[in-house]
Amino acid sequence: MAPFSLRCRLQNSTLNKKGFKPKAKHGRKGMKNMEKSFKRLKSEMEEISEEKKSIREGQRQVKEKFDMIESECEELKRETRLVIQQSARTQVKLALMFRILKAREADDISTAATLTEMLREIVGREGGKRR
């Protein structure tokens, strides 16, 4: 079909009436829209960059807080172990004292002397560790 035929003209006119227009070349309007799009994208990228920076800062602060809490936890564990050890030593000393009293009540002086010497050694070792 030749472009000047009646049939071709009818098809082109019906397409134009339905809203299908042949694409026009982009002129200044297209460049301005593109520049606006670039500016908008650039500003969005800057906003995203700022958000990333704030997120990184927040993560750093959370890590610092976590490290502080972790070190405090380790310190509490260490102190708890010390308290448990002191409690165990105190119970041993009390048990020895109780046995010394029972030996003295039973007039078993040699057992009381042996237990008293053991108690002195334990108390002496504790005094040496504290210094």
Spatial extent as radius of gyration: 46 Å
Instruction: Work out the strand percent.
Output: under 5%
Main beta-sheet strand count, sense and barrel state: none
What portion of residues is helical? over 70%
Biased composition (Basic residues): 18-31
Region (Disordered): 15-34
Organism: Hibiscus syriacus (Rose of Sharon)
Protein name: Peroxisomal 2,4-dienoyl-CoA reductase isoform 1
SSE topology:
Elements: H1 6-17, H2 28-105, H3 109-130
Helix pairs in contact: 2-3
Organism: Hibiscus syriacus (Rose of Sharon)
Biased composition (Basic residues): 18-31
Region (Disordered): 15-34
Quick recap of the structure?
The chain has about 130 residues and is mainly α. It has helices at about 5-15, 30-105, 110-130.
Verbal overview:
The chain has 131 residues and is mainly α. It has one domain (31-130). It is 85% helix and 0% strand. The protein is built from three helices and no strands. The chain has helices spanning 6-17, 28-105, 109-130. Helix 2 runs antiparallel to helix 3 (109-130). The protein is rod-shaped. Residues 18-31 have a biased composition (Basic residues). Residues 15-34 are annotated as: Disordered. This is Peroxisomal 2,4-dienoyl-CoA reductase isoform 1.
Observed structural traits:
mainly alpha; 0% strand; 131 residues; 85% helix; Peroxisomal 2,4-dienoyl-CoA reductase isoform 1
